[in-house]
Amino acid sequence: MEDDGQNRKNLRGVGRRAAARGDVDRAAEVAAELYKPVEQWDWEELTRGRPRTRDGGFDAMVPTWLTPVVQREAERRLITLGKQKLAGYLGQAIETFAKLMTNEETDAHGKPIVPPSVKLDAAKFIFENIVGKATTRVEVDATEGAFGLLAGAMVMSDGTDAHPVVIQEADPDPEDPAGSGSG
After folding, report:
1. CB neighbours of 47 closer than 8 A, spacing ≥ 6?
2. Which pLDDT belongs to residue 8?
3. How does pLDDT run across 94-113, given as a tens digit for each residue?
4. Burial of 18 (0-12, 13-18, 19+ CB in 10 A)
5. Predicted confidence (pLDDT) per residue in 33-75, tens digit
6. Cβ distance 69 to 32 under 8 Å?
7. What Cα–Cα distance (Å) separates residue 165 from each residue in 117, 132, 137?
8. What CA–CA distance (Å, rounded) separates 84 from 78?
9. CB–CB of 27/15 below 8 Å?
10. Inter-residue contact 18 to 26 (CB < 8 Å)
11. Are 90 and 83 in contact (CB under 8 A)?
């Protein structure tokens, strides 16, 4: 019996060290060895931060090293539960988008009940979630002018240039006396 108590104490130490270095997976393994897998904890156990004791109570202190493990599992379950609940409304959501986009009703003054901006937003939402958002091309000009500007701005603590800029004039073309550069 003493051996089991010492083993549990050692495991708690392993769990504390794993949590301290951010190894949540190892801490979860230790929690499963000491108690039961965190995935099997009910909502009350997750909110209290520890599993029930053998008699079904929560009379012991919360081990601080379990906190990251419990948080990760609670977040995972909350996201899963949310997705499951929202999935039940998916058909209604699609019908609502379709009704908004195709609604041609007008009020007593002839004004559309569904403004064109709402129809456009619904259409964009559907398009972007099925086809995907349009990509934007970005071009960056990294010319020598930018390098010269940066090099000129960098100054050492004694006031000298960190990287002196060397500007070299091009040798004129001896065959092009006008210096037009078209030769």
Report:
1. 74
2. 75
3. 899 899 999 999 999 999 99
4. buried
5. 777 777 787 878 877 777 787 788 887 677 776 777 777 887 8
6. no
7. 54, 46, 32
8. 10
9. yes
10. yes
11. no
Dihedral sign for Cα 68, 33, 6, 55, please. Answer: positive
| Other Cβ atoms closer than 10 A to 150 | 12
3-class state of residue 110 by DSSP? coil
pTM of the shown model: 0.40
CA distances from 93 to 88, 97, 119, 152 (A): 10, 6, 14, 58
Domain spans of the chain? 2-86, 90-130
Half-sphere exposure of 124 (CA within 13 A, CB side): 8
Q: Which helix (H) or strand (E) holds 124?
A: helix 116-130
Q: How far is CA 56 from CA 41, 45, 59, 69, in A?
A: 12, 10, 9, 21
CA distances from 53 to 45, 48, 56, 57, 67 (A): 10, 12, 5, 5, 18
Q: Quick one: angle between helices 2-20 and 24-34, nearest 10?
A: 160
> Residue 183 and residue 176: Cα distance in Å, rounded?
7
